[in-house]
Amino acid sequence: MSRPVVQTRNLSKAYVMGDQTVHALRGVDLTINEGEFVAVMGPSGSGKSTFMNLIGCLDRPSDGEIELDGKPVARMNDNQLADVRNKYIGFVFQNFNLLPRTSALKNVELPLMYAGVKDRVGQAKAALEKVGLGQRMDHKPSELSGGQQQRVAIARAIVTNPVMILGDEPTGNLDSRTSEEIMAVFQDLNRHGKTVIIVTHEEEIAHHCNRIIRFRDGRVQKDERVENPTDAREALKKLPDPDAVLA
Ligand code: ADP
Ligand code: MG
Q1: Which ligand is nearest to the Cα of residue 94, counting in written order?
Q2: How does residue 182 score in pLDDT terms, banded at 50, 70 and 90?
């Protein structure tokens, strides 16, 4: 039996702006188990980012419950939320969000520093090797391609060995081949047992996951299993290699 990593009940979020209230989430009941690879989809404004921010402990709901790995977090204070975030969650963003003047290695060391880990270099190197960036650890983000920067960001997300990885459109700024490479990295992590939840606009990207949850107007409209997920490494073999064309 796999254990629930995320469990929400009647999860609701209203943003009050002046005399207007926006109901971003209107009662979401979901369970995501350990080892799942989930794509969150839906039109712009349907509540995807709000959902990710809530299960990522970046914000609190207006109503309803969230349990992360069995721990109720909906009414925690900011410090408690920060602790849960550091311990349970690795984030990957559309724009990578790396420190620009800092090497890949130092970027990956950062979460370990916050966690008070003393021997950071070994763990940071291991994380970079896991995402295939063992060779470029001394490079700054500006010296890396978009795909390489996103790998650094994934290494940073996994270095503390979190229970789950959350990505809000992690391939949103990448071309098709690079997106496929990033999906290969997520699939590798997932096959090693990591729970991964990403937001995407693209059906093709979502089809690499094991489950697609579709939001509409702040509710879950559809929640489906993917029968034969695309294997990113197989897909890459069929895509033209830009370097081979240039050679
Ligand atoms: P999605 O990620 O699916 O595009 P969001 O979760 O960002 O959707 O937004 C859902 C709704 O909540 C939208 O109507 C959006 O305008 C509103 N919203 C999101 N964040 C805020 C905020 N911080 N303040 C006010 N309204 C917000
Ligand atoms: Mg969004």
Answers
A1: 2
A2: very high
Q: What 3-state class would DSSP assign to 194?
A: coil
Q: What is the pLDDT of residues 38-77, one digit of tens each?
A: 999 999 999 999 999 999 999 999 999 999 999 999 999 9
**Is 24 near ligand 1, meaning CB less than 6 Å away?**
yes
- C-beta of 15 in contact with ligand 1 (< 6 A): yes
- Give the closest residue to 133 by CA, choosing from 111, 112, 155, 113: 155
Whether 16 lines ligand 1, by a CB cut-off of 6 Å, is no
- Going along the chain from its start, the domains and CATH numbers come out as 4-233 (3.40.50.300)
Ligand 1, residues 11, 12, 13, 15: which to mutate, most atoms within 8 A of Cβ? 15
pTM (2 d.p.): 0.95
Q: Contact at 8 Å (CB) between 162 and 90?
A: yes
β-sheet bridge partners, residue 212? 39, 224
